[in-house]
Amino acid sequence: MPTTIKDIAKAANVSRGTVDRALNDRGGVNPDVAARIKTLAAEMGYKPNTIAKALATRSNPIRIGVILNSLGNPFFDKVIEGINSAYDSLSDFGIIMEIRKMRGYDQEQQLYELEQLLKRGIDGLVITPIATKKVRDALNDMVKTGIQIVCCNLDIDDVAYQAYVGCDYFCSGQTAGGIIGMTTHGESNLGIITSSHALYFHEMRVKGCESVLSQFPNVHITDYIEAGDDEELSYNGVKTMLLENNNIDSLYFVTGGTTGGLRAIHDLHMEDRLRVFTFDQIPAVIDDLQSGLVIATIDQQPFTQGATSVRTLFESIMSKQMPTRKKIFTELNIKNRYNINTDSINTK
Fold first, then answer.
1. Which CATH number characterizes residue 231's domain?
2. Tens of pLDDT along 264-299?
3. 303 with 284: CB under 8 angstroms?
């Protein structure tokens, strides 16, 4: 592998920013230290890349804005950890980052957050976009001014972004459908909890599941509810669904709201009656994987989604080139009570 600035910094026992300034003669480094860094770089066969050259000619810090639909959704705790990890690894290169959090899928709130970040003079944006015309128009207007965009966790059509980083929603739904069909031995009355049928990519997860369950004629979808990734809406909706449909024996949580839905099951003392299928390794899911209520969860790598989004955006800004892949799909890992690792969840 080629030598990196990080390798030289480790060998010289200095920061990456110090190495960058020394190699590009940007001052602020003791002359003896700078000479030692240049000698090490030559000995280690270091070759500057396009990003390093761009950093050397840049006079202003790189400003990155982040907008996440994260409030009340524990999935995004790991996304934010990934974002912060990437920021820490790049901060020596002059990045200023601002994370703005919002609850749910309120178009006007997202437009407000976009306006606030525009006032900050951002160079790039990481966003979980709400796929409405107004948001699309706002994002495309930003692109026209030179702001680069990476979509994290949620994709959006007809926006000239750099990349989407997240799971393949239809495939994730197919994966869930296969697990449900096989673990129920092809016989089940299923309740589905989703965020909103109006959210295209969440709906793709429902459609993917349905496409596979069509191969299991004795798996019947008994009821749907929309919980908007809200724990209380999910709690009340699941409670009502189960009380009104005595034949439901399985539940499929498509997106957020899982914690509230699981709480409803426990409050109704229906643990022995139900098999539950979820996404992600949030604390409530881990607890119920261990208890046996949750049969399987599909992990979509939230830490990786956050970290990769920031790194992809940074590299795109500095290289002034499109990423090699427009759609960067994270892995779908199936977890059950026997392979869950509570000590190191989504930390890579």
1. 3.40.50.2300
2. 999 999 999 999 999 999 999 999 999 999 999 999
3. no
